[in-house]
Amino acid sequence: DGGITQSPKYLFRKEGQNVTLSCEQNLNHDAMYWYRQDPGQGLRLIYYSQIVNDFQKGDIAEGYSVSREKKESFPLTVTSAQKNPTAFYLCASSIEAHLGKSTGELFFGEGSRLTVL
Amino acid sequence: GENVEQHPSTLSVQEGDSAVIKCTYSDSASNYFPWYKQELGKRPQLIIDIRSNVGEKKDQRIAVTLNKTAKHFSLHITETQPEDSAVYFCAVPPLVFGTGTRLLVSP
Fold first, then answer.
1. List of E strands, chain A
2. Half-sphere exposure of B107 (CA within 13 A, CB side)
3. Which residues of chain B are within 8 Å of residue A104 when distances are taken between CB atoms?
4. Among residues B75, B70, B73, B72, which one has the least CA distance to residue B86?
5. So what's the pLDDT on residue A2?
């Protein structure tokens, strides 16, 4: 069954801790993305990767880090430098992207809800 | 950078009415314009998209129109049903999403 899987679904973090959100896809997509969604707001791009071993910052990259060592995996680390990390995080993939523009449908994971205690 | 404005932010209609949501974008190089539906606590799902070489696309009760000159595209839902109630987002992916329109369809 092809798709994009995020884990964990819910995560609680103490202040000062780093946490890593997992995102795995078996769609053979080149491009992967991380978005943050706050209540009642749209999606804001954190990081994206158009190809393995390469990634670019989005609008709100401060306090986050990513890696793209494998085509199917794009984990997001929320560091202690992110001052307001409580949010719903969505990972997505698309077949390809050129110069930062997606050329087709974005497939989203089910999301990870991070709460800072 | 790219900017997208989406209106209205909320829309309440009676079942059977039509609903229209409009997005305006700034980057004239954009050529792919999708609309996503997100139900509460769930992932966004693509409902319809359009590419810049066409002006309108329909899929049953849903249609999208594109005006490249004016740089706006609109989502049209006809014969609305209660299950259409959700938040709808336009996008100029992957960098920019609209702020969303909460559609409420009352029986």
1. 4-7, 10-13, 19-25, 31-37, 43-51, 54-57, 64-66, 76-78, 87-94, 97-98, 101-102, 107-108, 112-116
2. 2
3. 32
4. B75
5. 65
| Candidates A94, A109, A111; nearest CB to B94 | A94
Q: What is the pLDDT of residues B45-56, one digit of tens each?
A: 999 999 888 899
Nearest to A45 among B36, B94, B100 (CB): B94
Name the nearest CA neighbour of A86 among A74, A94, A77, A78: A78
Mean pLDDT, residues B30-52:
90
CB A71 within 8 A of CB A30: yes
Q: What is the DSSP letter of A80?
A: T
For B69, residues 6+ apart whose C-beta sits below 8 A from its C-beta are: none
Q: Does B42 touch chain A (CB under 8 A)?
A: yes
Contact assignment for A48 to B94 by CB distance below 8 Å: yes
Q: What is the DSSP letter of A8?
A: -
Distance (Å, whole) CA A98 – CA A96: 7
**What is the rounded distance in angstroms from the CA atom of residue B23 to the CA atom of residue A21?**
31
pLDDT per position as a tens digit, A35-61? 999 987 889 999 999 999 999 999 899
Cis ω before B34 (30° cut-off from 0): no
**A111/B contact by beta carbon, under 8 A:** yes
> How far is residue B59 from each of residues A40, A82, B56, measured CA to CA in Å?
28, 42, 10
